[in-house]
Amino acid sequence: MSLGRTDPSRFDGTDSSSVEMTPEEEAALRAQMDRVEEEKRLARLDPGPTWREWFLFDASKWWVVLFLLVADSWIVVGWLPTGNIVGMVLSLAAAVYAEYLLGQFLWHRPAPRPTRAAGGFRPTWYHPFPYGRWTPEGLEAKTTGAPVVTDGTPDPKEFL
Predict the structure, then answer these.
(1) Which residue did the predictor score with more confidence, 120 or 138?
(2) Neighbours of 122 (CB within 10 A)
(3) What string of DSSP letters covers the chain?
(4) Position with higher pLDDT, 13 vs 103
C-alpha cells in the first residue's frame, strides 16, 4: 500500500472531501481567493529589493554590529589579565571611533538639503564621508560617478 491512499476494504462510503457550503460561505471564500490572487499579482509587479540590496542596506548592519561587539569584547578580555584599565579604556575609545568611522563609511545618509553655498560637502572628524558606500546614494554615485543631489532641486552645474 502506498502513502496517501486509503485501503478500499476499509471504505465506509462517506466522502469527507465534498463539504456542502452555503452561498454566503462560497462568496466569502471566492472573495478571499480573489484577494490572494490580487496580492500575488501585485507581488509579481513589484518584487522588492534584490538580495544584494537587502544584504547591503538592511541585513549587514546587524552582522557588522555583532562582529564589532565581538571585537570590543576581545579588547576587554585582552586587557583584563594585565589589569591596565587606562590601556583598556584608550583601546576601547580608539576601537569605538574606528567602528563609528566604519559605520559612516558604509551607511551614512546625507542631509536632505546639502549646503551648496558653503561649497558642498566638507569632511570633518564627525562626518568624514559624504555618503556611505552601502546606501542607495552611494551605489548611485559609484555607478554613475556623479555626486548625488538629495533635495530634489536641480544642480546648478547641470545648466552651465
Answers:
(1) 138
(2) 9
(3) --TT---GGG--S--SS-----HHHHHHHHHHHHHHHHHHHHHHH---S-HHHHIIIIIHHHHHHHHHHHHHHHHHHHHGGGT-HHHHHHHHHHHHHHHHHHHHHHHPPPPSS--TTTTS----SS--SSS-TTSHHHHHHHHH-SPPP-SSSPPGGGG-
(4) 103
pLDDT tens-digit series, residues 89-101 = 999 999 999 999 9
In the block, cell 549646503 appears at: 115
Q: Which amino acid is at 14?
A: T
* pTM confidence score: 0.55
The residue behind cell 584608550 is: 90
